[in-house]
Backbone:
């Protein structure tokens, strides 16, 4: 027979009586230890738990255990001891192999006697030393007072009873005294079962409960522990009391399991259970059903399996962990979350510093606020750190991070395992990335860099830069103007919305790119042809070898870089830059540009120019490494020159020539050309057609005189610079204070910003002052002032030559307009007053007020839905006219006088053809898009009433 040793202390037993409604408690003391029992007579005082308060527990059995652990030192043989059997026993304390030890601690005197049926007992200090022998009767009792220490001087705290079973199954029972006052008698019977269990049976007058206490032993650690469980269907509540770690297990009903200050394991099994761990590092598992769990102080662990399970922790009560089999969001004061189900579920943190661990499935983990540590596990996981300085570890599988959407911009580098971004306070934040394959960017401008794995990089919104590096990568630009570089490997690239470009820097062989077909082809290892997919790409930067780049129907940006490249633009308005090498550039359809800034050219001493572009002859000539290089350019309408001295010659089309820096010579040729000299002292010749000089790159205000053909200004050293202009009709000036002087042509001057002085000359000139306080003089001819760029309503009086308006500072600003016949107003409520001439007054939106004065005046309206304007003096006898824009009113209208069938007099259209209706009773002038159809007519002007208005008084401009 093997050796068993148990140390067990029972301090308190509580029995419920369901027939009365009161609580009674008795306590007693024996040899320094306090014992007590309580009777609770009612269940009406129970309250259910909530997140706001702890529950009140009543109607339960309490098993209180002392400070000494329930130890089993050896478990190798099972002993069955049944109740009500009498056996004879011979005690032999010298034979350790045949001894079983039961230690009964102090306190038994008040509860009753230890009665051993059929056993002769010997009380011993230990298995080898006998302190005192007691010869007991068959029904003898053993009192703790009978046990002395080795010297016999004082009572010891415990006694050891050694019994040896020789025949039958002995019984041990604990018999408590009756309580006459409360009419309660307790009876505790103990036996050992085959699974090393002790059964405590508590009996009252009207109710019975049974709690099972199981002793278990871990041979690896040589530690034992106890589990208590509810066995009877009438039992629903269990309280573990004392200071030692005890386990509590419920049953299939709605249980309340309450732990103590030690580390308890509370398991509710089925039913809607309430578990309270109290102190200690507790394990709480409600089991099936909707459970409520309160861990209390300590580092607690919860098992959650129902969406309505409640877990409550309070502030500063330890580091607590949720083990969840469902989608779960950590509540307040919970720190860690572990997903323990093989299905794909979601784990979400809270404001604290969380540690969230995924499972083997494909999980989504979100840290929210706090400095979180997310670990994806073995699946293909999605990790969202959100705010805070986080550690994002994807674990095994193909894992993805989403950069927080509220960050200003971010750089994710999977090579270095770092995520760096600016937070909302513009602080630099660096996070750690581990085992991450895929990245999704923010709505801002991000930099996403892959590693050697097969990465998926998604820029999201913003102008992003994506680089895949090695591996077969998938790059998606998203919205915005993105730059994408797949790196080595066979990649798939989608630019998304915006104007996106792909660079092919890492290719070791020449590439053939067809944007219309969406493919990149090149030679891989052993000459094997490789094809990559590219979608929604507008720009391509080739390799350093001889590439062929072909565009599609959109505006493309094709950059050959080094090598002898062939670039063809397709149907859009394309930009082609051949780079170094002898290239062939074909713009295709559309208005296409050649960019020469990247070609390697040498200056040519002794010659007036270094680069020659002739669109008539379809070539570019320049010197490279001392040798002349001639490239072919076809179907090119626009040229952007180099930093050297360029000579750009247009053809018969409408060309745009930009010299950039250097002393350039630009000649537009036939056609309506735009010329920009850029920095340097330039010579600009518009040639035939209506040609424009753009001076927006100037660093100071200029004086441009079309009569003398000179532009003068001061450079940065305040040196006077003079440039030559010929055959120019229009000038768009600088943002500084400029003076523009016209000639006999019909000039168009745009002063841009600055306090400008514009003088039109002898033609029918068009003057735009722009921002600033301007002086506008049309000169002779029929001249127009356009004030539409003003930021406030204006009052323009052609009789006085004054324009006034209120600026942003609330100040009244006055500008001068002289020799002006036509005024285009703002989108605000303007007052436009003509003079004695034939004026044209255009409201351009707003509720305007027109007064034409003498002469045959025209009052213009851009749209019927941008306001209702008033004409104060419409006079048919003087030849006044109402002008409507076909673009703003009805695109089907033809220019000239309004057709008679489209005009009606009355208060509404009477036919489907009627478009303009004049009501003589009120003077209202209406537009009706469908005549007498269902659409409502719109009033756009008010004239004088009772006019004899006809269709001939209405004109249409197209």
Residues:
């Amino acid at each position: 027979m093997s050796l068993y040793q148990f140390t067990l202390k029972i301090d308190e037993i509580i029995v419920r009586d369901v027939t009365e409604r009161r609580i009674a408690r008795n306590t007693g003391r024996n040899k320094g230890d306090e014992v007590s029992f309580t009777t609770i007579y009612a269940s009406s005082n129970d309250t259910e738990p909530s997140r706001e308060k702890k529950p009140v527990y009543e109607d339960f059995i309490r098993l209180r255990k002392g400070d000494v652990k329930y130890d089993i030192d050896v478990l190798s043989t099972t002993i069955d001891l049944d109740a009500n059997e009498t056996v004879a026993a011979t005690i032999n304390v010298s034979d350790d192999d045949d001894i079983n030890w039961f230690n009964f601690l102090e306190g038994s005197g008040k509860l009753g006697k230890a009665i051993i049926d059929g056993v002769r007992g010997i009380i011993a200090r230990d298995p080898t030393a006998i302190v005192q022998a007691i010869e007991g009767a068959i029904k003898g009792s053993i009192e703790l007072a009978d046990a002395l220490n080795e010297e016999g001087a004082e009572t010891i705290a415990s006694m050891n009873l050694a019994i040896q079973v020789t025949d039958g199954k002995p019984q041990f029972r604990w018999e408590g005294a009756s309580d006459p006052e409360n009419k309660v008698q307790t009876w505790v019977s103990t036996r050992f079962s085959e699974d090393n269990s002790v059964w405590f049976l508590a009996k009252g007058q009207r109710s019975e409960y049974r709690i099972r206490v199981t002793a278990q032993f871990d041979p690896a650690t040589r530690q034992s522990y106890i589990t208590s469980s509810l066995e009877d269907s009438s039992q629903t509540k269990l309280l573990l009391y004392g200071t030692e770690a005890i386990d509590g297990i419920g049953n299939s009903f709605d249980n309340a399991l309450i732990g103590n200050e030690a580390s308890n394991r509370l398991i509710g099994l089925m039913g809607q259970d309430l578990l309270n761990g109290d102190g200690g590092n507790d394990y709480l598992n409600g089991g099936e059903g909707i459970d409520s769990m309160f861990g209390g102080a300590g580092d607690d662990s919860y098992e959650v399996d129902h969406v309505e399970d409640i877990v409550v922790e309070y502030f500063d009560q330890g580091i607590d962990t949720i083990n969840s089999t469902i989608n779960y969001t950590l509540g307040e004061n919970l720190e860690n979350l572990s997903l323990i189900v093989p299905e794909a579920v979601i784990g979400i943190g809270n404001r604290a510093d969380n540690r969230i661990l995924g499972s083997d499935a494909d999980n989504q983990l979100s840290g929210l606020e706090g400095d979180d540590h997310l670990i994806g596990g073995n699946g293909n996981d999605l990790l969202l750190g959100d705010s805070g300085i986080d550690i994002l570890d994807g674990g095994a599988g193909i894992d993805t991070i989403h950069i927080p959407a509220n960050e200003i911009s971010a750089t994710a580098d999977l090579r270095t395992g770092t995520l760096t971004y600016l937070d909302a306070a513009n602080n630099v934040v660096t996070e750690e990335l581990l085992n991450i394959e895929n990245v999704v960017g923010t709505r801002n401008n991000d930099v996403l860099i892959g590693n050697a794995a097969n990465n998926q990089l998604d820029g999201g919104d913003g102008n992003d830069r994506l680089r895949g590096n090695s591996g077969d990568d998938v790059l998606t630009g998203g919205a915005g103007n993105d730059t994408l570089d797949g790196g080595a490997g066979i990649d798939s690239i989608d630019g998304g919305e915006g104007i996106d470009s792909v660079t092919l820097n890492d290719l070791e062989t020449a590439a053939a790119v067809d944007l219309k077909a969406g493919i990149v082809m090149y030679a891989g290892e052993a000459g094997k042809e490789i094809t990559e997919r590219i979608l929604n790409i507008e720009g391509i930067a080739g390799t350093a070898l001889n590439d062929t780049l072909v565009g599609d129907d959109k505006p493309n940006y094709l950059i050959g870089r080094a090598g002898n490249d062939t670039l063809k633009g397709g149907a859009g308005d394309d930009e082609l830059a051949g780079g170094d090498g002898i290239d062939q550039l074909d713009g295709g359809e559309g208005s296409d540009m050649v960019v020469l800034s990247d070609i390697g050219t040498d200056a040519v001493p002794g010659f007036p120019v270094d680069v020659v572009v002739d669109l008539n002859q379809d070539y570019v000539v320049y010197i490279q490494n001392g040798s002349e290089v001639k490239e072919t350019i076809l179907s090119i309408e626009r040229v952007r020159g180099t930093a050297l001295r360029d000579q750009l010659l247009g053809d018969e089309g409408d060309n745009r020539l930009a010299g950039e820096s250097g002393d350039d010579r630009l000649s537009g040729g036939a056609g309506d050309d735009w010329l920009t000299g850029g920095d340097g002292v330039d010579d600009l010749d518009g040639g035939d057609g209506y040609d424009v000089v753009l001076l927006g790159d100037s660093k100071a205000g200029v004086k441009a005189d079309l009569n003398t053909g000179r532009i003068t200004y001061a450079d940065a050293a305040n040196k006077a610079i003079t440039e030559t202009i010929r055959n120019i009709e229009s000038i768009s000036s600088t943002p500084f204070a400029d003076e523009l002087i016209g000639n006999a042509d019909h000039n168009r001057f745009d002063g841009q910003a600055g306090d400008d002085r514009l003088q039109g000359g002898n033609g029918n000139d068009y003057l735009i002052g722009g921002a600033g306080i301007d002086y506008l003089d049309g000169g002779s001819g029929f001249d127009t002032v356009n004030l539409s760029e003003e930021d406030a309503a204006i009052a323009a009086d052609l009789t006085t030559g004054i324009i006034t308006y209120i600026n942003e500072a609330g100040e009244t600003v006055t500008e001068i307009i002289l020799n002006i016949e036509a005024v285009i107003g703002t989108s605000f409520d303007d007052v436009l007053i003509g003079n004695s001439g034939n004026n044209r007054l255009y409201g351009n939106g707003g509720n305007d007020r027109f007064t034409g004065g003498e002469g045959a005046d025209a009052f213009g309206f851009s749209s019927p839905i941008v306001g209702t304007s008033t004409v104060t003096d419409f006079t048919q006898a003087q030849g006044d006219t109402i002008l409507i824009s076909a673009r703003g009113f009805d695109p089907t209208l033809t220019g000239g006088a309004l057709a008679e069938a489209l005009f009606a007099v009355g208060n509404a259209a009477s036919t489907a053809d009627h478009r303009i209706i004049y009501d003589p009773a009120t003077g209202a002038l209406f537009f009706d898009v469908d005549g007498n159809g269902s659409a409502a007519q719109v009033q756009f002007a008010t004239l004088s009433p009772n006019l004899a208005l006809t269709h001939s008084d209405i004109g249409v401009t197209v």
